[in-house]
Design a protein that fits this description.
Length: 220
């Protein structure tokens, strides 16, 4: 089974934020692949289906970003499932500009609390990730990173990210069928012009939140 995990925060107040772009992608995948409705799983929600005759699960952790790895605990020792080949984590990246994306086979958390939690849960850095650019071309002086990623995309940024979704779908399909090296080689990140794509909100919805945002302390 291939597992595609989108990182984000639950609750409508975070739906349009930069930190939730991983959810935008997996919600789009669930729609275009016509997967059955989302269902509750341990520490998250999941949608299961087939892509190119391969079993695929989409997963959204509901633990808030800093504890995202908790939702992956049930998979770590799963028979016939390997982190290096069967997991793809979709995540926002402030080091990439809006309109860019990168497939990567491994790497450090780079200061991203969600990835740090994933690494802690998996015990390895060697898992595939799809990094979606949310960085600002010209950072605002004095702006804190946490406030930036928890702020909503500007209207033109939303348009650019939505314009990427078809290319991202093709890239994730390549990862499912041929692996992360093929996805990296065939789908290098690219910038999308700001005037491309419809000016609409993020695809899919989010479940309601019942706990405080983003930065609960990690488990001991």
């Amino acid at each position: 089974m291939k597992l595609v995990v989108g990182l984000g925060n639950p609750g409508p107040e975070y739906e349009r934020t930069r930190h939730n772009v991983g959810w935008w992608v997996v919600n789009h995948l669930a729609d275009v692949w016509r997967f059955p409705p989302w269902r509750a799983v341990t520490h998250g929600r999941a949608a299961d289906g087939e892509v190119e005759q391969r079993r695929v699960r989409l997963l959204e952790p509901l633990t808030f970003m800093n504890l995202s790895g908790d939702a992956l605990a049930p998979y770590v020792n799963r028979p016939f499932w390997a982190v290096a080949s069967d997991l793809l984590v979709v995540v926002d990246d402030v080091a990439l500009p809006v309109g860019a994306f990168r497939f990567r086979a491994k790497g450090s958390a780079g200061g991203h609390n969600g990835l740090r939690s994933v690494e802690d849960a998996l015990g390895t850095l060697e898992y595939a990730r799809l990094r979606i650019g949310v960085g600002r071309a010209e950072p605002v002086p004095g702006e804190h990173l946490r406030d930036y990623v928890l702020d909503e995309f500007e209207a033109d940024e939303t348009t650019v990210v939505r314009a990427l979704l078809p290319a991202l779908t093709t890239g994730v399909t390549t990862w499912i069928t041929d692996g992360i090296v093929a996805a990296m080689n065939r789908h290098p990140g690219r910038l999308v012009a700001p005037d491309q794509g419809p000016r609409e909100g993020p695809p899919g919805g989010t479940p309601p939140a019942d706990s405080p945002p983003d930065d609960p302390p990690p488990p001991a």
